[in-house]
Amino acid sequence: MDEKLSPTAKYQRGYLFTEADFQRICKLIYDYAGISLKATKRDMVYSRLAKRVRATKADNFHEYLALVENNQLQEWESFVNALTTNLTSFFREPHHFPLLAEHALQHTGKAPLSIWCSAASTGEEPYSIAMTIADAFGSFTPPVTIVASDVDTNVLAKAEEGIYPHERIEKLAPDIVKRFFLKGTGKQVGMVKVRPELQKMISFRHFNLLDEDWSTLGASDVIFCRNVMIYFDKKTQLKILEKFAHMLRPAGLLFAGHSESFHHATHLFKIRGKTVYELANLYDARHL
Ligand SMILES: C[S@@+](CC[C@H](N)C(=O)[O-])C[C@H]1O[C@@H](n2cnc3c(N)ncnc32)[C@H](O)[C@@H]1O
């Protein structure tokens, strides 16, 4: 570290990365996507963005952030994509899926059951939802719509493609693999692809949970919002939960991640099962 330059400036493996740069990054990603980065994430931020500094041929983080803020070289999107954490897996938190199947089969509304997977990452979660629904109805064309969205355009493209390394499905039951996946051949050996019938059950779209305008989404009977609220502070969580409460149809379900609880929003949601919520008060919630 060159102390003369600044007491907080740091050269890490090559690029000057100051505390001011880190704070600027924290503010940019918080304002845009609600992601709240703690001081302990500084090294992670460095290693994820250093690749972008290199790719854009910027000399240091200060210069790189000017590119981001002016969206030069369309760097804004890559900046956001680099800062999201996308860990996921097929049938993660498996206790949710039998409940989803039961709920879907009990649906009596005139409109098809509408499911929104709001932080879909690379697609394992929406495909697990689609497999559950296809099994429950014994059909790839059930009276159900599934929308999968994410703020990260890279993972969304991967989700839509539906191609995974074989090890991603190793823990799945052989009959699930047989019914829902195609094995890669030739150049694609070692990869699997979800069957096109399953892909057709899902509409993929870019959506930022921090967007003010949710009018294009329509009402939902089921919302999956798992393992993303942990990146948001309580204020942001509450803002999103208010919008969920407003768009969830009566008797609708909200599925949350294993370490997410909404004790601060008991006026909106009450617990229905292990990390599954329903509207606390149908009348109030829908008139927020
Ligand atoms: C850890 S993954 C969880 C994926 C999946 N829901 C699961 O539980 O396996 C979190 C996902 O949330 C997405 N995300 C982060 N901030 C978001 C926002 N503001 N709007 C929509 N998606 C967001 C990330 O891009 C990432 O793909």
Task: Record the SSE blueprint.
Layout: E1 10-12, E2 15-17, H1 19-33, H2 42-56, H3 61-69, H4 75-83, H5 96-106, E3 113-117, H6 124-137, E4 144-150, H7 153-161, E5 163-165, H8 174-180, E6 181-183, E7 191-194, H9 196-199, E8 202-206, E9 220-225, H10 234-247, E10 248-256, E11 269-273, E12 276-279, H11 282-285
Parallel strand pairs: 3-4, 3-9, 4-8, 9-10
Antiparallel strand pairs: 1-2, 5-7, 6-7, 10-12, 11-12
Helix pairs in contact: 1-3, 2-4, 5-6
The structure holds S-adenosylmethionine.
S-adenosylmethionine is lined by residues 33-35, 84-88, 92, 119, 121, 125, 150-152, 155, 208-210, 226-228, 231, 257.
Summarize the structure.
The chain is α/β, with parallel strands linked by helices.
List keywords for this structure.
2 domains; globular; binds S-adenosylmethionine; 288 residues; Chemotaxis Receptor Methyltransferase Cher, domain 1; three-stranded antiparallel β-sheet; 20% strand; Rossmann fold; alpha/beta; 11 helices; seven-stranded mixed β-sheet
Q: Numbering strands along the chain, what is their spatial order in the largest sheet?
A: 8-4-3-9-10-12-11
| Helix vs. strand class | alpha/beta
Name the average pLDDT.
93
The level of helicity is 25-40%
Can you count the beta strands?
Answer: 12
- State the name of the first-level CATH class of the largest domain: Alpha Beta
Query: What characteristic shape results from the CA principal axes?
Result: globular
CATH topology of the largest domain: Rossmann fold
Helical stretch tally:
11
CATH superfamily of the largest domain: Vaccinia Virus protein VP39
Give the number of domains.
Answer: 2
Largest sheet: 7 strands, mixed
β-strand amount:
15-25%
Q: Radius of gyration, rounded?
A: 21 Å
Bound molecules: S-adenosylmethionine
Reported CATH architecture of the largest domain: 3-Layer(aba) Sandwich
- Cα end-to-end separation: 52 Å
